[in-house]
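Notes continue from the previous slide.

Worked example: a multi-chain complex. Inputs as given:
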Amino acid sequence: MPGTDRRSDPRVTALTELETLELKRTALRVRRNILRMFKAGGSGHLGGALSAADILTALYFRVMRVDPENPLWRERDRFVLSAGHKCLGLYAVLAQRGFFDLEVLDSYGALESRVAGHPDMHMLPGVEASTGALGHGLAIAGGMAMGLRMDRLDSRVYVLLGDGELAEGSNWEAAAACSHHRLDNLLAFVDRNALQISGRTAEVMNYEPVGGRLEAFGWSVREIDGHDFAQIVENAGEMPFEAGRPSAVVANTVKSRGFSFAEDRVDYHHWKPTPEEIRLAERDLAEIEGSLAE
Amino acid sequence: MRETREPIAAFGEALLEAGERYGCVVALSADSSKGSGMGPFKERFPERHIEFGIMEQGVIGFAAGLATTGRIPFVAAIAPFVSSRPFEMIRNDLGYMRQNVKVVGRCSGFTYSDLGPTHHSLEDVAILRTIPGLTILSPGDPIEIGKAVQRACEHDGPVYLRIGKPRMPVLFAEDHELELGKGVVMEEGRDLAIVATGTMLGRAAEASRLLEREGISVMLVNIHTLKPVDRDLLVRAAEQTRGVVTVEDHYLAGGLGSIVAEVLARERPTPMRMIGIQDRFVGTGPYDELLTRHGFQPAQIAAAAREFLEQLTV
């Protein structure tokens, strides 16, 4: 069982070069897991899974207090994927972290697969909420944070929102309540890849400045590069940024990060790969692997 | 004259009692605490009362999150604002996620008569009963409201509890047992079955007394659990009478009448007369006058039942 003493918690310290390299290698395995599901199941939400992959990797391998052997451990940290369509990233990380067998990923796209098109908390260990309809996760995470605080546990709640998702008004209800109730055991990542199905998020429905809006709602906000492990880990580990306020990290990311042919391209929000694209993706991942060789 | 009690106060007393019994019960308010009867709970357990302001969508998600930590959240507000407005949150965060949250819609039906259709809920049962695993309770008197709160606490799963606003006659003794999913036969009879729920049960009971006085034998059935409904009892009512009359302050589309018809069409096709609200907004005004306009006075219910029985006889 992982330790419960936050003060001696290794997560809050800065990463060494070697640790950063190891996280990069893990993130590469995660991207391979994502591609594995596409090869098994044919199509799915690619862009957001890859833009969030590094944040998810850092959370589950460095930041969060979880125990894959005991997924319902009372004192665990919680993670809610509000942008449920990025679930291939979550499945890839949970499997890699040992919550379930990697082979489960091969059922993606099959009838009654446990790795479904959106996450189902009753299907897979490690999934804390069944999301998919946007604008639900922040309120659920806020309720978890309230409950954990009532239980006087020091568990933290992490939630990941898409930037396009912020157009759902229910997020702003939840943002207000998290701040009103001073939920400083909650940290929200906004995966700001700046794209959504119909185009550039700022052109579809502009919620910029995202950080400024959250600040105006009473949150303590930082902006980072969502693919820089040192920045993700240090900021997530330092929560709450201010006592008595919920923390938000606006993470600037690249949609489809890692698959060069799809990066920052709106048409890869949802992907039905061609054999040629699969080959390209494998080549890209091999190149990343080469760059991470000792 | 029967004793009458405030349904919202009955809920509030039962919630307070549940709070005493279960430390995990919490009350969530969408600026609706006092009006929903949660004032005594708030006073007794301020740390277990959480205010959200007028946030009827968000409050359901917070309730779901609280339930994941082992709490039993009660969310109470004016019925349309905790049913049709946050429907998707109830469907996904409580239904699909199977969270142990109790949603209480008060002033249901058109009991908030003078505030008009924005504050009426004539579709809450219809939409909510599409949610797998959601239990829907519509207690028929103040005693049943108290029992419904107890049973809701004991039941592990999402519940919608529908209660009205005007004083309700006390129809049951204090030791009345309410079993989820089991209807109550209040009178046995052989000519007609009158099946009623919630706020309408007292009126249906009066109507059945009027009919009995005319020599018509009425089986009076109280359906306090609309989902899962007591199929066996509905079939028995159809078997032992010549026709079934349903009474509800809800749209005919999707409410009690539909529920009964769905069961009987499959298991024992039976002539029915459904008394409820047609496909329209009911308007505003004094509650008693709206009741008359829409045919809910006991004499009107009795007349409709008598006419139905006469048609069956021809």
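Summary box: The first strand of chain B starts at residue 4 and ends at 5. The domain at 4-169 of chain B is CATH 3.40.50.970 (Rossmann fold).
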